[in-house]
Write a structure and sequence with these properties.
Among the domains are: 277 residues, MetI-like (MetI-like fold); 107 residues, no CATH class. Helices cover 50% and strands 11% of the residues. It has 21 helices and twelve strands. The radius of gyration is 33 Å and the shape is elongated. The N terminus and C terminus are likely disordered. The structure holds adenosine-5'-triphosphate. Adenosine-5'-triphosphate binds next to strand 2 and helix 12. This is Dipeptide/oligopeptide/nickel ABC transporter permease/ATP-binding protein.
Length: 650
Amino acid sequence: MAANRSGTGARAALRRSLHTPIGLSAVIAGLLLAALAVAAPPLFGDRAEAIDTGATNQGVSGAHWLGTDSLGRDIMARVLVASRLTLQLGLTATVIGLAGGLVLGVAPSVLGRRAGRAVTAAVGVLVAFPGLLFVLFLATVFGVGSTGAVLAIGLALIPSLARLIQNLTASIAGSDYVAAARILGVGRFRIVVRHLLPNIVEPVVLFGVQAATGSLIAFAGLSFLGLGVQSPDYDWGRLLNEGLGRVYVNPASALAPGTAVVLAGLVFGLIGEAVAQAGGRRTVTVPTATPTDVPAAAAEQDTDLPPGNANKDPQDRPDVNGDALVQVTDLRVAFPGGRTAVRGVGLTVAAGEAVGLVGESGSGKSLTALALADLVPYPGRTTGTVRFDGADLRSNPRLGTDLALVFQDPMTSLNPALRVGRQLAEVAEVHLGASRGGARARAVARLAAVGIPDAGRRARQRPHEYSGGMRQRAFIGMGLMAEPKLIIADEPTTALDVTVQKQVLDLLGQVRAGTGAALLLISHDLGVVAEVCDRVLVMYAGRIVEELPVRRLADAAHPYTRALVGAIPTMATDPASELATIPGRPPEPGEEFPGCAFAARCASATDRCRAELPVLAAAGGGAGHRVACWHPAEPDAEPEAARAGSEAAA
Ligand SMILES: Nc1ncnc2c1ncn2[C@@H]1O[C@H](COP(=O)(O)OP(=O)(O)OP(=O)(O)O)[C@@H](O)[C@H]1O
């Protein structure tokens, strides 16, 4: 598990941690404790076992620094010797707890949805049991003695650890880089080993150290109650039990094993603190993107992709209907509570075509894209058909090689625990059966192709050493490790600095021109789509309301599209004037309306608009222009910018 966390990163963190007082103290104290457990039995074993009936129940003296027990055995020697068994039992119980917790913790990520939920529910029930009662119950079930106590304490640790791991893995399983791995076809088990576990190592180790302290104390408690270690064996808990009866005669006989438990607990706590410090320091050095990190010329200079132009000549555009790479019919995405976010979307993307999907925040663009890749998050339910290159994508996923996804936030789309080159290489290993060396060479070549300077060295770095723009480039490079036929880019530039945005858009254009891949670009910015795409689909409240070639945007017929077009600032826009906005707000996914969803915000709405749902039908902007509106604007009508702007100002 820890092997995945990189060696050098972990070693560097450890070295840094050693230079802090806590780290240094933890290492020294841990070594001393380990040395005591190893050396005490051979050194003091005989003295600890030697019965002297002439010196029973003695107090502190020069011969017996902590006195003797009821058989005249030296208490100090016994406390020292007991360190081995105490630590052995405590650590064994912790290992059982960690192993069980890991298995149950990652099970929901590996098993199917139903079995995963059953495991989660079972863990939830077990967590609800009071821990101490659980230990006592199990100790009684397994019987009195060391083995029973180890099993009881180990098993009692499992539910809380499993719950922790389930929570941690659930949050990581929802991250973009795990979605990316899934879409690249990486198997569930491999995702757990390579993506989930490396990212939860630190909190799990920390929890493990705390659990070790807890099990030490639990052992002392069980042995003290007579349920743990049985004579002639002895651990600190048992010595405490024996010493307590004589606490008024010789307080040291009870204080010494009690103090030993506390000190060992402190050492474990110190080690945990050092681990947390080492982990914490690793996570604070994430640089933010700066425009200068990606030189403007990098894409042009370092790329081996042909210089592309995303704005292809419209005449070159393939026949969408006859040559559809993607054909989506009646796509719906619904969440519990009647929240339907995507309400019957139909769309096509031709091979090599660049299609933009625009709309306000919440219109369902991202869910449409996720549904294409069958990545809608649970409990969302997807219906409808998605045909990709002739096959039903939802029943026959063809992910990994044919489909590449670029996410919005480059900070979360790469696994922070893996080197960038390794993440790219994994795609070639999994899908192309490439050797490790071959996959690495391909990864370096792809990084260079997307304009990462000094790609060989950069491939060995981790995502936090990249700027935002470089991460997005690297992620696009990851999509190019195979030969994708379709790239779905969901707001790929939103999280980037404005100058880097331009470079990433150019890069997408070059990639497309170089590979012939089709592009589905999702954006709330019509200006971005107009720059990159051939065709635009306008989405409103979960439906496509207009579809038209980018070059005919000026002929948009839907009032919503016209308002969006009017909201794009141009060189002629007066900087002092207010930008046009659309008054009102879009409906929520749960809101039902019999007619047009835009009616409430539309100046041209009539009773028919509010009562009857308009469907997509041919519009006046020529071939490929369809609009869902009862009162579409004529092609030569005045744009709506002025009106939308004045309404917004009002
Ligand atoms: N996991 C979820 N559970 C419930 N509702 C969701 C979930 N994901 C999205 N939604 C809802 O579905 C609607 C559409 O979401 P989606 O992310 O597709 O919008 P979008 O058009 O991509 O917006 P943005 O540009 O802000 O990403 C939103 O109203 C959102 O609240």
